[in-house]
Amino acid sequence: MHQTTDATTSAVGFDHVFKAFVSQGRRGEPVLALQDVAFEARAGEFVSLVGPSGCGKSTCLNLLAGLDTPSDGTVSHRGSPVRGVNTAVGYITQDDNLLPWRSLRGNVELSLEFRGVPRRERRERAQELIDLVGLGGFEEHYPHELSGGMRKRGGIIRTLVYDSDVVLMDEPFGPLDAQTRVILQAELLKLWHRARPTVLFVTHDLVEAIALSDRILVFTANPGRVKREYTVDIPRPRDPFHIHDAPGFAELYDALWDDIRAEIGQAAR
Ligand SMILES: Nc1ncnc2c1ncn2[C@@H]1O[C@H](COP(=O)(O)OP(=O)(O)OP(=O)(O)O)[C@@H](O)[C@H]1O
């Protein structure tokens, strides 16, 4: 289902990317959000972006989705510069964005419907994911009849059902309670293993970043650039419930936290 990305082409590339916003509130002075951001993500890689608030993590995702354009440098997807809205990537934000007038099944089938996938295939693909995240039996429920965690699952599988080769996730579990978050992290890993898209995942939760990622990019305080990258060597499949016990977890957590603490200190100065 994925478009192929050969070994020499990164799935996602940021090449010396700058982004300035002209903000009305600051008498037209530009705000530099990104300053020389450079990184790549390989096909099938799970990469988290972490860093202090306002360091430009969401801006990176928006550039890749083509919702914004870089002021300088190039953002590429499968080796081609992103020009205009990039509908080939999946984008999951904090809000579940389920349509209130559609059932869970209707919501999950939506992106397949837009792409003209025949009804029977839509049904099968949606059902597979509905079952995989334990929502079997709730297919005909409307969003207001589902819990926050169930709606969140619905929003995630609605994006993943299309099998995009790149999926952007911006603090997808932000508003959920701690227990539901960990359950959903485990489910996300199951979904990711099923189709292995490249994921760019924005989070403030370092434990979550370690549990999910192959690599973690730490951004500097505003203006954001990649300060350091960490490879997460914890073997897969991983168990987010017991990730604290994994060898190397504590050292990695401390190193990440030291880096981020230094940046928060910079930002406060
Ligand atoms: N559309 C916009 N217009 C003006 N400034 C913007 C716009 N979008 C983002 N910014 C500014 O760019 C900088 C980076 O914002 P961004 O939302 O990417 O940061 P972030 O790291 O995702 O923050 P958080 O962790 O708080 O969500 C901030 O200073 C923000 O105010």
Automatic annotation (TrEMBL):
GO molecular function: ATP binding; ATP hydrolysis activity
Lineage of the organism: Bacteria, Bacillati, Actinomycetota, Actinomycetes, Pseudonocardiales
Protein name according to UniProt: ABC transporter domain-containing protein
InterPro entries: AAA+_ATPase, ABC_transporter-like_ATP-bd, ABC_transporter_ATP-bind, P-loop_NTPase
Keywords: ATP-binding, Nucleotide-binding, Transport
CDD domains assigned: ABC_NrtD_SsuB_transporters
Organism of this sequence: Actinophytocola xanthii
Residue ranges of domain ABC transporter in the record: 12-246
Top-level lineage group: Bacteria
